[in-house]
From TrEMBL:
Residue intervals of the FAD/NAD(P)-binding domain: 1-296
InterPro entries the record matches: FAD-bd_OxRdtase, FAD/NAD-bd_sf, FAD/NAD-binding_dom, FAD/NAD-linked_Rdtase_dimer_sf, Pyr_nucl-diS_OxRdtase_dimer
Entry superkingdom: Bacteria
Organism per entry: Candidatus Enterococcus willemsii
TM regions (residue ranges): none
Keywords noted in UniProt: FAD, Flavoprotein, Oxidation, Oxidoreductase, Redox-active center
Protein name (database record): Oxidoreductase
Domain Pyridine nucleotide-disulphide oxidoreductase dimerisation: 322-417
Organism phylogeny: Bacteria, Bacillati, Bacillota, Bacilli, Lactobacillales
Obligatory cofactor(s): FAD
Family per similarity comment: Belongs to the class-III pyridine nucleotide-disulfide oxidoreductase family.
Entry keyword Lipoprotein: no
Length: 431
């Protein structure tokens, strides 16, 4: 069996590794348009923070590791078209015959709404982009970031640490809207608005960017000049133009529960597809690494016959921004309209531990009648990120608040807060 995978990021790589385990005799080939496999989407930022000695080290897997698993890797090769009837794929360098084809080309941050010269506006998801951008970041004194989502604020946080003057433009009236309710973020927003070399521009739609000696940014209420522009707008699927494969209006590829497309023998995974939100089972676009990895593994399991449906995700994130730790999983209060029953919320401050002076601001979203947990948001000045995994597990298990609090967890006065959590959560009034 010849398995051909287009894309060597998380989805494609984990699909290939699982396929090698399941089909030891298969011929597995990955085609990647970039010059490096497995580059981390935030690899540039990790390098700038000193986590890697070289930019090219910011990967989750190496070409050598793939070769050791008898997986052929073709870099610097660009997919062009597919003849599904003849099971033939054409790139800019060769023509391939396949038995099973897996599309894992990921997503892009290129803006489709801003008038600009595209090659002059930069993002950093790929190794080539990061390598090209690195000297420009080092030279720039003033950097403008378009988009105040997770990627945009992570970049802004690192650039502020480097002493850059940073401007962040966001079309909505608060950041991180996909993962947090606005009122919950009030302490965080208030704090970052006091950072001297950071300026947040909310409710600002950028209409045009012109490159002269500097970049000239034209927005609804302001004009600004900057040494460097980064786009970190909401990602969208890369264009995979295959006539036989059905796509949705948002250009995500239609797949069945087993991740097979409308064309038999062709699968789509990762940021190319919608996946079910486990809480409602409604399909949503959730371009996250966890979903990329798991869809890759599931697709590999279904290449010969459909045995393993993909169950979906919970939209879980955790990050550190400007010295704050933020995490979220599941439903937001602002999304109550997509849930079939009434919801309620509780917002409390939980001590990090019995000996710590720091606390975790915690918001719970739950079903009003049953108290079934639906969503959690966390905000703290100390690392609370691992707690979100426990919350995600509780949501997946369908536990109520009372059941969560009665689960057995370890206790140590210096490191845990479980007893305090029980008192706070079960004793608080609904918000």
């Amino acid at each position: 069996m010849k398995i051909l995978i287009i894309g060597a990021s998380f989805a494609g790589v984990y699909c290939s590794l699982q396929a090698r385990k399941l089909y030891p005799e298969a011929e597995i080939t990955i085609i990647e348009k970039n010059e490096l496999a497995g580059f981390l989407p935030n690899g540039l930022l990790l390098y700038l923070q000193g986590n890697y000695e070289r930019l090219e080290d910011a990967t989750f897997i190496s070409s050598k590791q793939l070769q050791e698993n008898n997986i052929q890797l073709h870099l610097n090769e660009t997919f062009q078209t597919v003849n599904a009837q003849n099971k033939q794929l054409i790139t800019d360098k060769a023509t391939y015959i396949y038995d099973k084809l897996v599309l894992a080309t990921g997503s892009t941050q290129h803006s489709t709404r801003i008038e600009l010269v595209e090659e002059e506006i930069f993002h950093y998801k790929t190794y080539q982009a990061a390598k090209f951008l690195l000297p420009k970041i080092e030279q720039a004194q003033d950097i403008t970031i378009i988009g105040a989502g997770q990627a945009g604020l992570e970049a802004a946080s690192v650039f502020v640490e480097l002493g850059k003057q940073v401007h962040v433009f966001e079309t909505l009236d608060y950041p991180l809207f996909k993962y947090f309710d606005q009122a919950f973020l009030a302490p965080f927003i208030s704090a970052i608005e006091q950072i001297p070399n950071l300026t947040m521009h909310f409710n600002q739609q950028i209409s045009k960017i012109v490159k002269n000696e500097q970049f000239e940014v034209n927005a609804q209420q302001t004009e600004w000049k900057s040494d460097l522009i980064l786009t970190t707008v909401n990602v969208h699927p890369t264009n995979v133009a295959i006539e036989e494969v059905q796509v949705h209006k948002d250009q995500t590829i239609h797949t069945d529960a087993y991740l097979e497309t409308s064309q038999k023998g062709i699968f789509a995974i990762g940021d190319l597809i919608k996946v079910p939100l486990k809480i409602t089972n409604e399909k949503m676009y959730l371009p996250q690494i966890s979903n990329a990895v798991r869809t890759g593994i599931v697709a590999a399991s279904n290449l010969v016959e459909p045995t393993t449906p993909f169950e979906g995700g919970l939209r879980m994130i955790g990050t550190k921004l400007f010295g704050w730790y933020l995490a979220s999983v599941g439903l937001l209060e602002a999304e109550a309209f997509i849930y079939p029953h009434n919801i309620a919320t509780k917002t409390v401050n939980i001590p990090v531990s019995f000996v710590s002076k720091q606390s975790i601001q915690c918001k719970l979203i739950f079903e009003e009648q049953s108290h079934r947990l639906l969503g959690v948001q966390l905000l703290a000045k100390e690392n609370c990120l691992d707690l979100i995994n426990r919350c995600g597990w509780a949501i997946e298990e369908g536990l109520t608040l009372e059941e969560v609090m009665m689960r057995d967890f370890f206790f140590h006065a210096q490191f845990s807060n479980h007893l305090a959590s029980i008192t706070e959560l079960l004793g608080s009034d609904d918000q």
